[in-house]
Amino acid sequence: MCGVAGVLAGPRAEPAGLDELKRMIAMIGHRGPDGYGFYRDGRIGLAHARLSIVGLAGGFQPIHNEERTLWITFNGEIFNHVELRRDLEARGHRFYTRTDTEVIVHAFEEYGPAAWAKLNGQFAIGLWDAVKRELWLVRDRLGILPLFYARSGDHLAFASEAKALFGGGRIEPRFDAARLAQVFTHWSVAPQGSVFAGVQSVPPATAIRIDADLRLHEARYWEPDMAGDPALSGITLDEAADRLEEKLLDAIRLRLRADVPVGVYISGGLDSSVIAALARKLDTTQMHSFGVRFADNAFDETPQQRLVAGHVGTEHHDILCTAEDIQAALPDVIWHGESPLVRTAPAPLFLLSRLVRDSGIRVVLSGEGADEWLAGYDIFKEDKVRRFWARQPQSAARPKLLSRIHPYAATGGQKDSPLWQAFWKRGMTETDDPFYAHRIRWQNTAWTQRLLAPDVRSAANAQAFDEVVAAHLPAGWSRWSPLARTQWTEIAAFMSPYLLTSQGDRVAMANSIEVRYPFLDPEVDDLCAALPDRVKMLGLRDKLALRRVASRLLPAEIFHRPKRPYRAPMTTALFGAQAPAYVRDLLSEESLNRYGLVDAAGVAALAAKAHRTDGRMAGEREEMALVGVLTLQMLARNVLDELPGRASTLRARLDAAPIHILEEHLDSAAAA
């Protein structure tokens, strides 16, 4: 994994200077600490920061084809690069490196835009065709890796992170009020945006071609079909488990390809444990595993993590996360994540990736994606119960099924209370709503918007996020089962824009760690989409096929264990007597009024309450609201006040780092 950046000039504009490219890539040097590369001609400037994983020698970018007419700056991994290279060499292509990056160049040369669908990997691509004077910006199927772009007059700039756009000097950091409100409803912005005005994100599974006149042509190169394969309608649970295990083994085998050691995350839950067990079947050499422990027992899964590590035979490393650790990590998390957060959950994962780095490992496997593709979340059970209840809204028996979900929430009889049932009854009969399962959660989180400034709230369009997601719903989506529709909404509206970003790429790459996701392998996902619902969820029993696989590999305590959502302490870690100085500073009247993004009086009242109670709030909505406001203030300070100073420091570091490629062809590719 790496950092990419570039600037495309219009036909009558001056090309970006080398110093601008250096300023841009310096901002994201954490993504590639092993050196920098640059390419310039009369129209394009490309920059790259390298994290060496495959092809350690000679793999510095930008990389080109034989004729030097195609140039690429690439972030990610192409896991099937060995097979693609073999085919391309048989077709006459000649390679000058052993990297997966060069495979992309030759694949595009051979297949054109059809190449994108042939890539099994996680990637963000900037590819320049010097003959056609076209720039391609391409992102992987599920948006594992980020890629942003913005227009500035007769130039278009792109980069792995928005801070690189700002560091170059062409793009001014300003907040988009409507998108900020989206975060306070959906935990993230819609998949094609950012919280910054004018800064767009390349959507997952999308290739954007920018032509010689800077016109954008956007096309999706893949979309799922979760209608189920009729040929698999009669499959047994054991047969489904056999197929799933086979595909997972293939996916892990590909993701163990690296010229550096590969470790595994072990959370103590089912998904990461299966990945660890299967990885050990394929790799019997020393393997390192990593986990987060919590000082607060309400969040801790240490016994399960150590049970799995001992069972599969890894050398296990863990870090004990305290309230003080979350306090210390949160500012770094916001700087790297570039978005407010309504949860503190990314902070422990930032600390975990730092532990991986300090242990000398650069690549880890993660179990992310299993819950989405194999129906492991409680939201799928909520949907099923509410649809069942909606057929007889006056039933007194059907709502009692709600007591069987959320085993870690609302204990002490609360799940039998009228208040609990009334919450789930809201909108219950509106089963035609395309976001039926998610609507109730989005409405609940939207409570947090009341702490935003009136002009920010007024800019919020409650439908904007929904409309963006709806516009990208796959063909035939309406004919899918309710479970499949809910699964894809979870993938498109939550996993891709939040989990794989705030809890994935950003906190891992902050410490130059690459995370790989076997459950997000295209063949694994295509199988999961083709399987009938009954081998994923039957009644309220979840992830049946995966649990059957786990029963062959893991102790019963693990494969029978109900899903435990990953969470971290929130206001109890940040408010009260133990509050760090920056909390009171950022939420002071002066700071709140300085940025003008929040309702100062409302924030002050809720923060005072949190300090009085040592962060013990009446409900999770209040916790999310305070965390959201605090991290929004942090982000505002980062980009509006501190960015110039940080940029200067980072630029100085680049000057001391190795530059491995610097090619300039200003005459041969001059602007037409």
From TrEMBL:
Molecular-function GO terms, alphabetical: asparagine synthase (glutamine-hydrolyzing) activity
This enzyme catalyses: L-aspartate + L-glutamine + ATP + H2O = L-asparagine + L-glutamate + AMP + diphosphate + H(+)
- Please, which domain of life does this record's source organism belong to? Bacteria
Q: Name one Pfam family in it.
A: GATase_7
**UniProt xrefs under Gene3D superfamilies:** Glutamine Phosphoribosylpyrophosphate, subunit 1, domain 1, HUPs
Q: Which CDD domains match?
A: Asn_synthase_B_C, AsnB
For this protein, the record's InterPro entries field holds: Asn_synth_AEB, Asn_synthase, ASN_synthetase/amidase, AsnB_N, GATase_2_dom, Ntn_hydrolases_N, Rossmann-like_a/b/a_fold
| SUPFAM superfamilies cross-referenced by the UniProt entry | Adenine nucleotide alpha hydrolases-like, N-terminal nucleophile aminohydrolases (Ntn hydrolases)
In this chain the Glutamine amidotransferase type-2 domain maps to 2-213
Coiled-coil segments on the chain, per record: none
Which UniProt key words apply to this protein?
ATP-binding, Glutamine amidotransferase, Ligase, Nucleotide-binding
Q: Which family does it belong to?
A: Belongs to the asparagine synthetase family.
Q: What is the protein named?
A: asparagine synthase (glutamine-hydrolyzing)
Organism of provenance: Azospirillum formosense
